[in-house]
Amino acid sequence: AGNVGTCEVTVIVVDNTAPEAVCADAFEVSLDASGAASVTVEDIDAGSNDNCEVTGMSIDGGSFDCSNVGANTVTLTVADASGNESSCTTEVTVVDDSAPDAQCADASVELDATGAGSITTGDIDAGSSDNCGVSSVSLDQTDFDCSHVGANTVTLTVVDVNGNESECTATVTVSDNVAPEITCSDDVVSCCAANTVSA
């Protein structure tokens, strides 16, 4: 008969598919001279995508310092325009491969009455430092005697908290300023031939 009836229906299109978060393989970052390092979203993202459009990516744990030396987990979160999110993680190993800055200063030593003298690391260390902290400072020679009078080269070794080390050298000038001790006996008079006397 040719009659036609119509009606309207509302079709709601929803995107409930979460993005695919793709993280980079594990990698290393080195601390700089100030003891800091960081990674960006671009360092962690390895091609994350979405069926419609990725609208945002963020990471947590992207900044590091000396307390983070070793393995650290960084999480990448990917979001699309519909509010769907997904995440992945990658392992970032923080390394401290910076040797300490060893600073030396020359020193002088005066031998004592027994012919001995010594120095400490504090006499030679002129402000050695490290980006994460100095663990130990040592000298290859601290004690001197009469055989060392004059200029002597000593080596200062500086080790940081992560096992990196460096060295510097200094000149230690040893001097003997103690005068000899003279001991005289009592007067001795002996009489010899006639009219002569000797002592």
Report on the architecture of this protein:
This protein is mostly beta strands. 4% of the residues lie in helices and 41% in strands. The chain has helices at 41-44, 121-124, and strands spanning 27-30, 36-38, 54-60, 63-65, 70-80, 85-95, 107-110, 116-118, 134-139, 143-145, 150-160, 165-175, 190-191, 197-198. The strands form five sheets. A four-stranded mixed β-sheet has the order 1-6-5-3, with no helix packed on it. A four-stranded mixed β-sheet has the order 7-12-11-9. Strands 2-4 form a two-stranded antiparallel sheet. The longest helix is centred in the N-terminal third of the chain and has 4 residues, at 41-44. It is rod-shaped, with a radius of gyration of 39 Å.
Summarize the structure.
With 199 residues, the chain is mainly beta.
